Structures are given as structure tokens and as C-alpha cells.
Amino acid sequence: MLTVFSFIGCIQAVTLELNEGNSTCIKAELSASFSITYNATNSMVRTVTTFSLPDTARVDTGSSSCGTNGSSARLVAVFGPGHALGLSFSTNGSLYSVANLTVQYNLSDTSVFPEANSSDVVTVVSSSVGIWATMNTTYRCISPASFDIGGANVTFSNVRMEAYMRGNDLSPRESVCVADQASTTVPPTTASTTTITTNSSGTVCLLAKVGLQLNVSYFSQSQGKIIQALVNLSPKMNSSGSCEASRATLTLTQEQTTTLSFTFTLNSTKYHLSEISLVANWSDMAEPLSASNSSLNYLQSSLSHSYMCNAEQVLTVVPAFSLNTFKLQVQPFSVTNNQFSTAEECQVDQDQMLIPIIVGASLAGLVLIVLIAYLIGRKRSHAGYQTI
Ligand SMILES: *[C@@H]1O[C@H](CO)[C@@H](O)[C@H](O)[C@H]1NC(C)=O
Ligand SMILES: *[C@@H]1O[C@H](CO)[C@@H](O)[C@H](O)[C@H]1NC(C)=O
Ligand SMILES: *[C@@H]1O[C@H](CO)[C@@H](O)[C@H](O)[C@H]1NC(C)=O
Ligand SMILES: *[C@@H]1O[C@H](CO)[C@@H](O)[C@H](O)[C@H]1NC(C)=O
Ligand SMILES: *[C@@H]1O[C@H](CO)[C@@H](O)[C@H](O)[C@H]1NC(C)=O
Ligand SMILES: *[C@@H]1O[C@H](CO)[C@@H](O)[C@H](O)[C@H]1NC(C)=O
Ligand SMILES: *[C@@H]1O[C@H](CO)[C@@H](O)[C@H](O)[C@H]1NC(C)=O
Ligand SMILES: *[C@@H]1O[C@H](CO)[C@@H](O)[C@H](O)[C@H]1NC(C)=O
Ligand SMILES: *[C@@H]1O[C@H](CO)[C@@H](O)[C@H](O)[C@H]1NC(C)=O
Ligand SMILES: *[C@@H]1O[C@H](CO)[C@@H](O)[C@H](O)[C@H]1NC(C)=O
Ligand SMILES: *[C@@H]1O[C@H](CO)[C@@H](O)[C@H](O)[C@H]1NC(C)=O
Fold first, then answer.
1. Is the CB of residue 224 below 6 angstroms from any atom belonging to ligand 1?
2. Whether the CB of 288 sits within 6 Å of ligand 10
């Protein structure tokens, strides 16, 4: 006979923080669930129990360590009567990783281990589990990941954590686990390409390749308060635009809920992004948001060059709306042969040339490639025919 006892609580996110003096050295926000096999009395089969790390779990400062004085860094969370989850970290200066995971469970806790035929406190330790991140970045893994450790299985999800911290908050730069990258990243090479050509001889006049993320604050109907929302734009947005001698516009629309426009202005031999406007009508919005600013001066570059910035850029439009760009390359004027001209790269990229960017790619979750055909020639000839 198989006896399976399940104690499936709601899997909640738990925040664990280890401090040394006034500063934080390890911080972890995560959900964890455990599935443990044990021997029950009067049963010829082994029993499985599952439970999750409760939000009453607290850091055991006695067995935890920042790893500053030669010892290894270790975060131990204790919960219930004698249960514990431990993460040991190691670093080689450029990367840090979880060296091993420890699960300790107390078979005397009959609420979790009913009819256990032992009252032992069992401790199991894993070997390396493949959790690693660049120093000074936050390890992020929203996707669930399971680890088998002896008779115990631990599943982590919604993980954001950092060891060997320099500040009191998790670093804004993230090292994203492979599972998350697979589910959210569209590498630029496979990004959708939108070509607007109504004229077979149309020349491309504007080229853009970019991952876009909207950072918008609005009044949420469901939450009854103003919220800050980050929205990745789909690479499948529809694009349209126009090119004039000293002004080029690009408009991206998504299912009548989001319209984002860019205007580039050419001033003798320099061009810049002078206007961004957004109209958003999302289901949770109390009222549609309309925001624009026509006195911007972003993405400055020289005529006959493209502008490139692989690093994230924050383009503030109005207080309630900013736009985050990733892996940006754009050329709004003087495009020749349907391809980007030599790029002028942003200062951040130049500064970061020396730093290996492991996580950058993962942030560019969504990449748009837009080509706008030069239509003026056709319009002229069209108009010509009409007047005849
Ligand atoms: C911690 O903060 C207190 C008050 O801000 C300060 O007096 C103390 O010197 C700080 N200790 C360390 C180790 O930085
Ligand atoms: C169950 O009992 C067997 C036999 O005593 C032992 O070998 C095994 O380690 C036990 N399993 C667990 C999960 O305690
Ligand atoms: C516990 O259960 C296992 C498997 O059913 C059995 O082999 C073992 O002898 C039991 N141990 C005790 C102390 O009852
Ligand atoms: C294990 O659980 C029992 C019963 O809840 C408790 O009396 C005992 O102190 C616990 N052991 C440890 C090491 O906490
Ligand atoms: C740290 O380990 C990684 C991966 O094993 C390796 O690529 C890197 O060069 C190491 N860094 C140092 C400073 O040893
Ligand atoms: C991490 O940041 C600290 C202080 O900001 C710096 O001294 C250290 O070199 C950085 N480490 C790496 C690997 O970038
Ligand atoms: C876990 O990893 C830490 C850091 O490498 C190491 O000091 C410790 O001995 C390991 N624990 C076990 C039980 O292997
Ligand atoms: C979004 O905008 C708010 C307010 O300007 C800012 O505090 C926050 O850091 C931004 N978030 C991101 C991920 O850009
Ligand atoms: C355009 O160029 C003129 C002359 O060089 C300068 O006065 C003006 O400020 C420039 N305008 C912008 C928006 O850069
Ligand atoms: C916003 O969307 C709602 C529901 O889809 C629709 O009823 C409403 O007319 C839209 N408002 C605007 C200004 O487009
Ligand atoms: C428009 O952008 C300019 C330049 O960034 C800024 O000074 C101005 O405050 C913005 N306007 C609004 C309404 O936010």
C-alpha cells in the first residue's frame, strides 16, 4: 500500500537577509518547496511528504556567515521544529556560485512527517547545483529549478539573490539563469523583421533594431492604486513611418492597446531623437494613458552613421513614463543599400568594452527590427498620375 501524505501550502516568496554590522552581505528572495521521502511505520513502502518554505523562516545567524574572514559564505534559514535550508556560496573573484545546498528535517515533526518510524533529525547535502552569477550582480531565476539531494528534493522558483554584496540592496544588474533566458529571450538573429514596402523599387530610409521595455506608472483598477509597470514590447508590433529631409518618424502599434512613436530630427550634420509619444489603453488602466515629449535630445549621432547602444538606456519621457532600450541600433537618415552605416556607439558601451557582459543578452528580451521603405518617390509619381 502506498501512503502519500501531502501538505501543500501556498508557495510563498520568502525574503532572507544576512547582515554584518550595518550592511547586508547575502540576500535571497525565493520560493522553495520540499518533497521528502521517509519510512513510515506499518508501511512497506516509503512515504513522500511535500511542504514549502514558510514566510516565518528566519536566518540563523549562528550558522550563517558572510564569508569575510576566510570562512565560506553561508545562508541558513530555519523553520518549524528543527527544519533548515542552507546555501553555501563560493567565489573565485569574478563569479560566485552555490557550492552546496543543505536540507535538514526533523522526522519528529508529526505534522509534516506523520507516522515516521524514526525521530531523527536528518541532514542531506548536495554537491554543486549549477547556480552561479557574476560578482556584483543579482542571480535571477523565476523559472522553477529542482535539485535532488539524497531522499529530499528541493524546488526553487522566483529566485533573486546575491552573495558577497557591496550594497544593502540587490544589484540592479542581473545574471539570469538559462531557463529564464530560454523563455524570454528572442536572440537578435531570430527577431522578426518587418519590412514596409508598397513599392517594389522602394528604398529603405529608416532602419531600427531594438528591444523595448516601457516603464509606466498608472492607476490600476484591480489594485486600486497607482502602480509601476514594466512592459516588454512584442517584436511582432506593427510598424509604420515616414521619412522627410530633416524629420523621420517611426510608429509601432500593438493590437490597438499600445502605440509608440519616435521622431528623429536632422540638424545640418547631426541627428537626434527629438520626440517620443505613447498612447496606452491596457485593460487594467482606469483611463488610457497618453504621454509625449517633443523636446528630447537622445541618441545623438552624425549624419551617414547609425547610432548604436547595446547597454540598457533609460529614455525618460515624462515623470510617469520612461522607455528602456536594449541592444539598440538605429539609423533614421541617409540609409544606403538597406543596411546600417558605420555605428557611433554610446559612451556606456565604450566604457563597458572591458567588462564581459554575461547578462546583457537576457535583458534584451524582445527585439524589434524595423525597416521603413522610402515612399516619397512613389507618392510623387502616384500624384503625377492622378493629376493627369
Ligand atoms: C552602524 O550604524 C550606526 C548608526 O547609523 C553607526 O553609529 C555605527 O557606527 C555603524 N556601524 C558600522 C559598523 O558601520
Ligand atoms: C528506510 O529504511 C531503510 C531500512 O532501514 C533504510 O535503509 C533507509 O535509509 C530508510 N529511508 C529513509 C528515507 O529514511
Ligand atoms: C522503519 O521502516 C523501514 C522500512 O519500512 C524498516 O526497514 C525499518 O526497520 C524501520 N525502522 C524502525 C526503527 O522501525
Ligand atoms: C524535532 O521535533 C521535536 C518535536 O516537534 C522537537 O521536540 C525537537 O526539539 C526537534 N528537534 C530539533 C533538533 O529541533
Ligand atoms: C572564475 O571561474 C570562471 C568559470 O570557471 C572562469 O571563467 C573565470 O576565469 C574564473 N575567474 C578567476 C578570476 O579565476
Ligand atoms: C564589485 O564591486 C566592488 C565595489 O563596487 C569592486 O571593488 C569589485 O572590484 C567588483 N567586483 C567585480 C568582480 O566586478
Ligand atoms: C559546502 O560548500 C562550502 C563552500 O565551498 C564548503 O566549505 C563546505 O565544506 C561544503 N559542505 C559540505 C558538507 O560539503
Ligand atoms: C521605472 O521607473 C521608476 C520611476 O521613474 C524607477 O524608480 C524605476 O527604477 C524604473 N524601473 C526600471 C526597471 O527601469
Ligand atoms: C541646430 O543647429 C543650429 C545651428 O548649428 C543650432 O543653433 C540649434 O540649436 C540646433 N538645434 C538643435 C535642436 O540641436
Ligand atoms: C480602451 O479600451 C477599452 C476596452 O478595450 C475600450 O472600451 C475603450 O474605448 C478604449 N479607449 C480608448 C480611448 O481607446
Ligand atoms: C521633456 O523632456 C525634457 C528633456 O528631457 C524635460 O526637461 C522636460 O521636463 C520633459 N517634459 C515633461 C512634460 O516631462
1. no
2. yes
Residue 92 falls inside a structural domain: yes
Per the CB < 8 A criterion, the answer to whether 253 and 259 are in contact is: yes
Confidence grade of residue 282 (pLDDT, cut at 50, 70, 90): confident
Residue 118 CA: nearest ligand 2 atom is: 14
User: Distance from the CA of 16 to the center of ligand 1, in angstroms?
Assistant: 21
Residues 151 and 80 in one domain: yes
Is residue 322 domain-resident?
Answer: yes
* Residues belonging to the chain: 388
Contact 119, 107 (CB under 8 A): yes
- Do residues 186 and 176 both lie within one domain? no
CB 84 within 8 A of CB 68: no
Residue 17 Cα to ligand 7 middle (Å): 20
Chain centroid to CA 340: 28
Tell me the ligand closest to 247's alpha carbon: 9
CA of 150 to the centre of ligand 2 (A): 11
Cβ–Cβ < 8 Å for 134, 117: no
DSSP state of 40: B
Give 104-155 pLDDT, tens digit per residue: 999 999 988 988 889 999 999 998 888 999 999 999 998 888 899 988 999 9
Domain that includes residue 41, residue range: 2-180
- What is the rounded distance in angstroms from the CA atom of residue 48 to the CA atom of residue 50? 7
Pocket test for ligand 11, best of 216, 315, 318 (most atoms within 8 A of CB): 318
Question: Does the beta carbon of 135 lie inside 6 Å of ligand 5?
Answer: no
At 25 the pLDDT is 95
Q: Are 219 and 226 in contact (CB under 8 A)?
A: yes
Which three cell numbers mark 222?
484591480
